[in-house]
Specification:
Two copies of one chain form a homodimer.
Chain A lengths: L4 E2 L9 H7 L9 H18 L4 E6 L2 H12 L5 E5 L3 H12 L3 E5 L9 H10 L5 E5 L1 E2 L4 E2 L2 H8 L5 E5 L11 H4 L3 E5 L10 E6 L1 H6 L12 H8 L10 H17 L1 H21 L13 E5 L6 H12 L1 E2 L1 E2 L8 E5 L6 H17 L8 H11 L1
Parallel strand pairs in A: 1-12, 3-4, 3-5, 5-8, 8-9
Antiparallel strand pairs in A: 2-10, 6-7, 9-10, 11-14, 13-14
Helix pairs in contact in A: 1-10, 2-10, 3-4, 5-6, 11-13, 11-14, 12-13, 13-14
Chain lengths: 377, 377
């Protein structure tokens, strides 16, 4: 009889009204009935991406959308700048390398955001840079990078700015058109409150022009094919039909709450989570924390993995541990998508109980109280 | 108040017991709970593929799995043989060309199966052929190719045999290990009775060996990454969780009915559909018809598209028209996945009513009667 709390940065909880769409009988995708839904969805995505661009829907994980962006914007042997400092920043570089691009890495320590001056310097040193690959929210560290400042640099150069907003979209401010971001990619299982299975690419005009010159091999991830099909409210290959239909419902929920209020909610959730962590005596890991998740250091002497298992298996509360080099060193508590203040308070209650159970020092209620303070403002 | 009949070769109808899995709250994929499900699914797929190979699960349409196979088995500049004669056979060639492979096309007329002698000749003329790409059931024409005979040729050569069984799996006999097929790809929205969104690649030993030499660029579709993750009951990128969980249910249904009986059921459905079509005075399009769908020629003077719309919008019966060069020339009635005899009889009833309504010559009951004859045997 335990209730389930999914406080992970993807998948995120799917509201019942969206879940119920997934269980409906299938309709065929090459019918007027489906095309109408896909048209509504493709239009609705624009307001979430804050863009007038076409937002293309792919059937893949977010990584597929990243690959689609890489092969669109650069050729083999082209120089590309990659902002690293986390698992997902590194992924940009791994994909670019597979396609023979020359990766100019800007390495920032895990837990820190990039300074725009570093990007400026790299652009100056490499004036032929084809693209800059950045991350709105680095899910592995809980860091947000200053995309607005980076875009101000790239929009004045020939370098296209490609942003991984897979976890960030809908939680972190990102004004694609206003800031001048060329490509934004995202996924369904994050702020869009859907299960995983769809990814999205919002493609700016400079990119379509660039694609006349990029010959990087691509088939399933050829954005030109998706753009062509979009004119018929279609995609080139059979889409994940139930997810697209559920997305319509998700977009209606988003429209109802309003993008501005959604961003404010995430700010508040993040602030409360940071306060709660400090109240509990935990140290924050990220120096420029995002609104998607909060990374906290696992205290010396505490078995982090045991706590994660206990919370999940005994209390129904799923949080994430660290990835790659941060494995065993941090916990990541996400507050992304369909999350309300009480979910965060539950997380701290469960953490406090876990600390007590395993004999780690804790003042019961201290995390909850500190988070409540923020929510009460 | 109309009931819905999905007689298309993907998506196919999803049984209620599978649909209900899709509407359940999400669990995280990097948990023991999910890994156990994925282990059961990965094991269960082997019996459907009739193989001892690892069957890898990708989050993509079937085309993604095709691309994963192409980049695995050949390098740019390698010669590859592609059996065409339909939209999906052609797709193998399109993907191979994107990656710079030299495509040796065996063109068979649409509606006909390839003769194994043609493949034998091509292999003789091109002894360095890296791979042969074939199609178990060519969904655009309703043709089945003789994969067993082709495998008997390729298994004696260095050429790997890669088979698109996207629509064919679970409807058409395909004994991967016994026949010696190196790669089989499939998708979820076909014989597996799921919505679209997952694809599968069953990879034989000769392929893993080949991959030591193939340097074709690949990231999301790098089968080596999926193989590595499979050891941890995991995939490298966030999977379409609800589909994988629903797949467990689908595999249980398949196990209950038994693969042999499922293949027999599809044989019978196909035979009855062919008989019904002839009873209605329609001509079959395919000379080597498959058990997945039946392609029939649209009679002279009949507006095929109008009939498709009427059946779908007024009667709830969705069948497919022709694709590419067969557009407006054929109808495709699928009998794939969760289809029972009555579904086929409904289709002919609806077709007869449609013919009558639009004033085309028809003897009411003639198609139904002929199909019933087969089902009564």
């Amino acid at each position: 009889m335990i209730r389930s709390y999914l406080l992970t940065p993807g998948p995120t909880p799917v509201p019942d009204v969206i879940l119920s769409e997934l269980g409906k009988p299938l309709i065929h995708h090459r019918t007027p009935q489906y095309r109408q839904i896909f048209r509504e969805v493709s239009e609705g995505l624009k307001s979430v991406f804050q863009t007038r661009n076409d937002v293309l829907t792919l059937t893949s994980s977010g990584t597929g959308a990243m690959e689609a962006a890489v092969v669109a914007v650069a050729n083999s042997q082209d120089e590309v700048i990659v902002i690293r400092g986390g698992k997902f920043g590194e992924r940009w570089g791994e994909i670019a390398q597979v396609y023979g691009m020359k990766v100019i890495a800007i390495d920032v320590p895990w837990g820190e955001g990039v300074s725009p001056e570093q990007v400026q310097l790299a652009l100056k040193q490499h004036p032929k840079t084809a693209a800059v690959f950045a991350t709105l929210c680095e899910t592995s560290t809980g860091v947000t990078h200053d995309i607005k400042a980076i875009a101000a640099l790239t929009r004045q150069s020939q370098a296209l700015l490609v942003v991984d907003a897979i976890s960030g979209l809908g939680a972190e401010e990102l004004r694609q058109d206003e800031w001048g971001v060329d490509v934004v990619v995202s996924g369904s299982q994050k702020g869009l409150m859907l299960p995983p299975g769809l990814s999205f690419v919002s493609v700016g005009e400079r990119v379509w022009k660039r694609m006349e010159q990029t010959k990087t091999p691509r088939f399933y991830f050829d954005l030109l094919a998706y753009k062509k099909s979009l004119a018929d409210d279609d995609v080139p290959y059979t889409p994940a039909i139930p997810l697209v239909i559920a997305l319509r419902q998700a977009l209606r929920l988003i429209q109802e709450e309003g993008m501005e209020k959604i961003l404010q909610r995430h700010q508040k959730l993040a602030a409360a989570t940071r306060a709660g962590a400090k109240g509990l005596g935990l140290e924050l890991f990220s120096k420029t924390p995002c609104n998607v998740l909060t990374a906290v250091k696992i205290p010396q002497g505490v078995n982090g993995e045991k706590i994660v298992s206990y919370l999940r298996d005994e209390k129904g509360v799923t949080i994430a541990g660290g990835q790659a080099e941060m494995k065993g060193k941090i916990w990541r508590i996400a507050h992304l998508g369909a999350i309300a203040p009480l979910d965060i308070l539950v997380a701290f209650s469960a953490l406090e109980l876990a600390f007590k159970k395993f004999g780690y020092p804790v003042k019961l209620g201290s995390g909850v109280a500190a988070a409540e303070e923020v929510f009460s403002c």
